[in-house]
Fold:
Amino acid sequence: MSGLLFALALFGCADDGSACQRITAPEQTYESRVECLSAQGVALDSDAAMAAEFPSVFAQCMTKTQLAQIGKGTVDMRKIGIAFADASS
Structure:
């Protein structure tokens, strides 16, 4: 085991992912990225995700350090490796 803990966080975003904010919801912590990734679907079906007033909601697995670096402000999710559809294509 790597010793890293992974957090599953929900983000409410503009359609293109340029302006995202963490959704207030209990963050789940996992001992592996695989466990975290397998829980994303459940997180997206949660009451917090369904009640969010954003065009798009994303579940993202990150290390606790990565999540702390993002903080609570607005973040551009495209810069952390999430692909978004391009409506102009």
Notes: Residues 17 and 64 are 21 Å apart (CA to CA). The chain has four helices and four strands. The longest helix spans residues 64-70.
